[in-house]
Amino acid sequence: MRMFGGRSRPRLMRFDDALAALGADGVMERRVADVPLAQVVGTVDRPDDFDQEFRLVNAHLQGRWRSLARAMAAGVEPPPVDLVQLGELYFVADGHHRVSVARELGRLVITARVRRICTIAYGMACLRAVHLASKRAELEFLRRVPLPEPVRTDLWLDTPAEWLRLADAAQAWALDRTLAGQAPTDREELAADWWADEVAPVLARLRTAGHGLDLRDVQLYATALAIRDRRGSTEWPADLTELWPRTAARRRTALLR
Questions:
Q1: Domain count, the chain
Q2: Domain that holds residue 83
Q3: Distances from the Cα of 165 to the Cα of 40, 116, 141, 169, 170, angstroms
Q4: 10-residue stretch averages of pLDDT, the chain, 257 residues long
Q5: Which residue from 71, 123, 228, 248 lies 20 to 30 Å from 43 (Cα-Cα)?
Q6: Tell me, what's the pLDDT at 43?
Q7: Angstrom distances, CA of residue 43 to CA of 39, 50, 118, 120, 177
Q8: What whole-number distance in Å separates Cα of residue 6 and Cα of residue 50?
Q9: Residue ending a domain, choose from 54, 84, 119
Q10: What pLDDT was estimated at residue 4?
Q11: What domain of life (predicted)?
């Protein structure tokens, strides 16, 4: 068995913190399922007993952990754990030791009773506590610009400032449409129109030219927006693809400052 986690290791992500950053949108379902252990990343109420890889850090619980480990290694299967799902992420409500031991034994999945909660912003499997500030900004963006569900599941920007810039750009576009008498009255429809009529053509131009192939759609658009803003114009430059830096993936953060 590997060593128990040290006190300096990052703790598990808290369910309440993740839910606040993603925004609750109702309970969708309850089910029993085999859940990938790699996507079990947090806890409902025990953030101090395990680190973010579910290594035990509470010395008082070592006896219980070792006893369970011996039983599971001998083939004794414990009951399903209880998990809460947000997007692709799972948080342990009951069964922290079972998750920890299962990971130690090299298992890939664990049987669980799952309660899934829908969220406004999407919880990707790669999300960790360090990303929650950006997700909170994404949530505020989506409250201002309620994009369609298929678009939401692939949204990711690194900093809150990028989300603020994107929201301002989307609302400026919407204002222009409204003043021209071309905007629908429904906010969801207007947001979908912004993505289809404003964002998608820019993405098509850049991807056709071979740019941003390692970026998500929203990252590619945000980088293009920063290039446009540096030109001091609200119109897309005809030579946008020529302005794209050869090292855009590495320079994206500098461009967006």
A1: 2
A2: 13-119
A3: 32, 32, 10, 6, 9
A4: 55 94 91 96 92 88 93 94 97 97 96 97 94 97 95 95 95 91 87 96 94 92 91 87 65 46
A5: 71
A6: 97
A7: 12, 9, 17, 20, 45
A8: 9
A9: 119
A10: 52
A11: Bacteria
pLDDT at 33: 96
Q: Is residue 60 part of a domain?
A: yes
Is 102 in the same domain as 151? no
Furthest C-alpha separation in the chain: 72
Looking at residue 183, what is its pLDDT? Answer: 74
| CB atoms inside a 10 Å sphere around CB 83 | 26
Rounded to whole angstroms, how far apart are CA atoms 96 and 56? 9
Last residue of a domain, one of 84, 119, 154: 119
Quote the pLDDT of residue 42.
96
Contact 173, 145 (CB under 8 A): no
**pLDDT given at position 8:** 58
**Claim to verify: residue 19 and residue 67 sit in the same structural domain:** yes
In a domain, 137, yes or no: no
What does the pLDDT read at residue 26? Answer: 85
Integer angstrom CA distances of residue 202 from 96, 189, 198, 214, 241? 46, 20, 7, 16, 10
127 domain-assigned: no
> Do 152 and 215 fall into the same domain?
yes
- Specify if 164 maps to a domain: yes
206/118 Cα distance (integer angstroms): 33
Residues 114, 30 share a domain:
yes
Distance CA 217, CA 127 (A): 18
